[in-house]
Design brief:
Blueprint (H helix, E strand, L loop, with lengths): L1 H11 L1 H12 L1 H5 L4 H18 L4 H4 L2 H9 L4 H6 L4 H18 L2 H12 L4 H15 L5 H31 L7 E2 L2 E4 L2 E4 L3 E2 L2 H38 L7 H15 L9 H28 L1 H4 L9 H13 L5 H20 L19 H11 L8 H4 L7 E5 L5 E5 L16 H7 L2 H20 L1 H8 L8 H15 L5 H18 L4 H11 L11 H8 L5 H31 L6 H7 L6 E7 L6 E7 L1
Antiparallel strand pairs: 1-4, 2-3, 5-6, 7-8
Helix pairs in contact: 4-6, 4-21, 6-21, 8-13, 8-18, 9-10, 9-11, 9-16, 10-12, 11-12, 11-16, 11-26, 12-14, 12-26, 13-21, 13-24, 13-25, 14-27, 17-18, 21-24, 22-24, 23-25, 23-27, 24-25, 25-27
GO molecular function: succinate transmembrane transporter activity
Keywords: Membrane, Transmembrane, Transmembrane helix, Transport
Family: Belongs to the SLC13A/DASS transporter (TC 2.A.47) family. NADC subfamily.
């Protein structure tokens, strides 16, 4: 008992023990000679372990390079700190601020309820109605916020469906006739012969009722599992569609921009060009998830497309009532929706690659995707949340305004009944709201990841690890991409997707150069597969949210998600080798990268190759 008590006490103190002992135990690695490689390995192991085990907040771990790299002599503090204010991070901050505005004024709830009122009340179409708004909203705002918003709506839907199920059981068990007596007519040679009424055994009836009730309860529980998982899986699929949809995509852009920037190359990766690849794969994953979840729920009935005979009109009526309770779109919702649409258009039209966008109006490199993101974010602190007096006097008597209650829900009132409609100015966003809702931890995580990648490169650690993986050079490029995607997809189920992408991307970039493969050919599958967390609640916050609802168990998530995990990786690699290769010109290997590999070339024949997207010119070098 004493040993068991000591063990429990140590377990409670495991986080500070790891924080203190791990750096001390690994200290000889940092003191071995003057090798920057070993010092870089020392920093990576410490940060990687802290991130995976979460012995301290992930954001706090991300600050370690600021003091550790200068102490180890890997990089000066000035260079390390530059990584925490990258253009990519500003893009992410801008998108988060817009998402905060959407969430503050309940625009996302209106979109979700509207989608649900447009689909049929049957479970098959309700499942699609739940997944569609989660998928769409997660392209533009946090997957976590999207899932958290949908769960109360999902609970209300399931509550109504359970009432329908109980009513259906009651109608089947008590059809309004006397079940104790059943008239049986027997025909012999076509002549009916009446028998005396036969009394059923009361115990058998009770047993049948109990069995029906148990079957329906089991059926409802399965349906609840599918509905709950659909919100998380749809949010994960939607985040892949845009650069700002999920942190691994933003981290990928940051790494690619830095890696290609060392060689003065333009990778051609913009918000618009990413959607050429990200949106199709997101749609395919969305549809496969919808079909697979139906198949899991219906099993054999799915093959016959058997329709549910129960009437779910009560569910549809409830959803319409919920949507109606929102009232007309408020002034603030309209302004936020307009800003949201303007930002999306600016992102898509800045540099569409196939035509000239508005970015050509400025000197090359002056405007990036972060420019419109921060512009719209700043404007939201200026635009009014309620119509000004002169606007209300100009025939807008029916304008509705929203009032935020203590429980963060909104009630819609007419003009004049809300104290906030006074002549005073109220902006759409205030710094207090943004500061409270902003995911600062992810911002620091991205900065720490960029700093770690920079440290790995400058210490030579990435190159040293890639040399150990030269054995992969005997495989075809698509096989290498498949192997790496499977490894990352497995790792992201037990660690943060952002941390997983941060640790793998710099190593994969150097590995691709050594194997003479375009770095984006391997980096894109690695980054996207970091979003394939279908198996465990710890893989991603949406999974944790639906798991906390109580509808599912870990074994359910593993059984249902394992098939999706494998299918998602296979589809990703297939589309990366076809669609992404065409969109980004991944079939060519730029001269700048080839020079890094062939440093001892004495004579060569140089043949120019223009990549498919005309973003850079590469060369084939044949050594004599």
């Amino acid at each position: 008992m004493c040993c068991q008590s000591c063990w429990r006490s140590l377990w409670r103190w495991k986080n500070p023990i790891i924080v203190i002992l791990l750096p001390l135990l690994l200290l000889p690695l940092a003191l071995v000679g003057d090798s920057k490689v070993s010092k870089g390995a020392y920093a990576v192991i410490i940060m990687g372990t802290f991130w995976v085990l979460e012995v301290m907040p992930i954001a706090v771990t991300s600050l370690i390079p600021i003091f550790l790299f200068p102490f180890l002599g890997i990089m000066p503090a000035r260079d390390v700190c530059f990584n925490y204010a990258e253009d990519t991070i500003m893009l992410f901050i801008g998108s988060l601020i817009v998402a905060v505005a959407v969430e503050k004024w309940n625009l996302h709830r209106r979109i979700a309820l509207r989608a649900l009122t447009l689909v049929g009340p049957e479970p098959r179409w309700l499942l699609l109605g739940i997944m569609a708004p989660c998928w769409f909203l997660s392209m533009w705002m946090s997957n976590t916020a999207t899932t958290a918003m949908m769960m109360p709506i999902l609970n209300a839907i399931l509550k109504q469906m359970k009432k329908v199920t109980l009513l259906d059981i009651r109608e089947r068990n008590d059809p309004g006739e006397d079940d104790n007596e059943v008239e049986i007519t027997i025909e012999v040679d076509g002549i009916p012969m009446e028998e005396k009424p036969l009394r059923n055994n009361q115990n058998n009836q009770d047993e049948n009722k109990s069995r029906n009730r148990a079957d329906e309860e089991r059926d409802f529980n399965e349906l609840a599992k599918i509905f709950a998982l659909s919100t998380a899986y749809a949010a994960n699929a939607g985040g892949i569609a845009t650069l700002t949809g999920t942190p691994p995509n933003i981290i990928l852009k940051g790494h690619i921009d830095k890696f290609y920037g060392r060689y003065n190359l333009d990778p051609g990766l913009t918000f618009a060009s990413w959607m050429i690849f990200g949106l199709p794969i997101s749609i395919v994953l969305f549809m496969i998830t919808w079909v697979w979840l139906q198949f899991w729920y219906l099993r054999k009935r799915f093959l016959c497309c058997m329709k549910d005979t129960r009437s779910y009109e009560a569910v549809k009526k409830h959803l319409k009532m919920e949507y109606t309770s929102l009232g007309c779109m408020t002034f603030a919702e309209g302004i936020v929706a307009a800003c949201f649409l303007v930002l999306a258009v600016l992102w898509i039209t800045r540099d569409p690659q196939f035509i000239h966008g508005w970015g050509v109006l400025f000197p090359k490199g002056f405007v990036k995707d972060s420019t419109p993101a921060i512009l719209i974010s700043v404007i939201m602190f200026i635009l009014p949340a309620y119509p000004p007096p002169w606007f209300r006097c100009c025939g807008t008597k029916n304008v509705k305004v929203a009032k935020l209650t203590e429980n963060k829900s909104f009630i819609v009132t007419k003009k004049g009944s809300d104290p906030f409609t006074r002549d005073g100015f109220t902006p759409l966003l205030t710094w207090k709201v943004v500061n409270d809702e902003m995911a600062w931890g992810i911002v620091l995580l991205m900065g720490g990841g960029f700093a770690l990648a920079d440290g790995c490169s400058k210490s030579g650690l990435s190159d040293w690890i890639s040399t150990k993986l030269d054995v992969l050079g005997t495989l075809s490029p698509w096989v290498v991409a498949l192997v790496l995607a499977l490894v990352v997809a497995a790792a992201t189920n037990i660690a943060s997707n952002s941390a997983t992408a941060t640790l793998f991307l710099p190593i994969v970039a150097d590995l691709a150069v050594r194997l003479q493969i375009n770095p984006m050919y391997l980096m894109i599958p690695v980054a996207v597969s970091a979003s394939f967390a279908y198996l465990l609640p710890v893989g991603t916050p949406p999974n944790a949210i639906v798991f906390a609802s109580g509808y599912i168990q870990i074994k359910d998530m593993v059984k249902i998600g394992s098939v999706l995990n494998v299918l998602a990786v296979l589809i990703l690699v297939l589309m990366s080798c076809t669609l992404a290769a065409t969109a980004y010109g991944l079939d060519s290997f730029p001269l700048a990268f080839r020079k890094q590999v062939n440093t001892t070339v004495t004579a060569s024949i140089i043949e120019p190759i223009i990549s498919l997207n005309n973003s850079h010119i590469g060369y084939n070098i044949t050594q004599r």
